[in-house]
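Record minuted for everyone:
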Amino acid sequence: MNLHSLVPLAPDMLRAAALAPACLMAAAAAACAALPRADDAALWRRWIACCAAGLGFAVVVLAACLGGVHARQGGPAWPLAPGLALSRLGPWMALLVQFLGTVIGAFSSRYLQGEPRQRRYAAALAAVLAGVQLLLLADHWLVLIVAWYLIGAALHRLLCFYPERPFARLAAHKKRIADRLADLLLLAAAALAWHHVGSGSLSALFRQVQAGDTAPALRLAALLLVLAVMVRTALLPVHGWLIQVMEAPTPVSALLHAGVVNLGGFVLIRFAPLLGAAEGARALLVAGGLASALLAGMVSLTRVSIKVRLAWSTVAQMGFMMLECGLGLYELAALHLLGHSLYKAHAFLSASGVVRDARLRALRDLRANSAASVLAAPWLAAGVLLALDRLAGGAPWPWWWSGVLAAAWAPLLWWPAWRPGEAGVAAWRAANGIALVAALVAAATVAHLLPLGTRDVPWQAAGPVAWLGMAGLYLMLAALQLAPRHLETVRRWSYAGFYVDEIYTRAALRLWPARWGGPHRADSTNQCLVANWSTP
């Protein structure tokens, strides 16, 4: 019996399968915290088996949804239980989360060999995955808020896995402040929408909005929701904790950058009907996302540490994802979310290999990029985009987004200045860059055929603004490449992250003091940190 026939015959079994990943990870967290101390290797074997079982259920649910479960149930979200529903994008995300959780758990079992407190780590990691799976099923404001709170609480224990590291505790403290601010914003948004709609159900809210209700209360709720998501997604100016969690174990960094911060994009896609009725909220997303992408892109170009560059890259990518949601390009945002999660998980879990490869490249070639390649790259990228769009019979996105992509992918076409007799090598590198851009365009075009259940609603008036913003970023990057000595001040400011995080850190330490470095050094360490971060 195939899944197409299973859907109408066994809806209760499919409901159980959809709920299974969250229940399994919650059970794993409880078992790790409650069972008596046992062999760490046996603990991880049971943990990975539990996570793999959840992965199997996620595969079954996605296959069932591809078989038409949503269409058969008569709506975009399939009710599972009070406050829980399976959206069209949810099964894809559940499979992604469970797959990444299984890989990160297996990596952690090797990475933490010989470390104390592995049971606490395993419990917290399972709790984070359970919270994420619950959030993916949320169809009620309270479920959404509680799930996001539980994710932050469990993640705090992972960030402080090495409690003797003051800057790890500083990052966790700053994240806790951002989380509490986001909780308040979400509660305010929920109160406004709940009072206006008369129900906390998200499905009821979306139905009312799609029926034409654009009351001021709903537009204000959308604005508060956007602010909460921007804070949770570590956009500027509350991004600093995401950079400083490099003090935590590497698999925690992979979990953060590949999973947790990406949840903001999923929530915005889920609330697409509400955002469509609130132009002010979308404008805030465009402005905040574009600013974060621009500033973080400049900072990542000046950093040397591979992991720190990856962290700044995440801030830039989150800004880019918020920009996509603000422009109504939800299909692109969903594809971006899936692709970025897989890429960042691989990048962090293979960070040691990336560092080795970067050192080898530095030994082979220390020459600056060719001025000709920097000037020609955006035009070459635009030409590749236009040619492939023509072959495909038109791009699946607006014309101005092709300009944004050309500016974003143009650095892939940079190559070092060549010496006499190396023209062939330069031509080969240029051809490789063009092939890479062509592959990205083809992948983005083909990926639009995936049944993710999203629909683009392009904001045509704001699109050219995003294009100009990305063009401005490229011009600044090009200037830093071609005339670094004349822009030394800009480079210093870029390296320092434009001092945005220092302002937030100073305020966090003064307005919400915390204990650092253990009970015997708490006061002195806190005073030292305040002094260090308060010094201009």
Q: What stands out?
A: Residues 166-197 form the longest helix (32 residues). The chain has a mean pLDDT of 83. The beta strands are 78-81, 84-86. The CA atoms of residues 78 and 333 lie 22 Å apart.
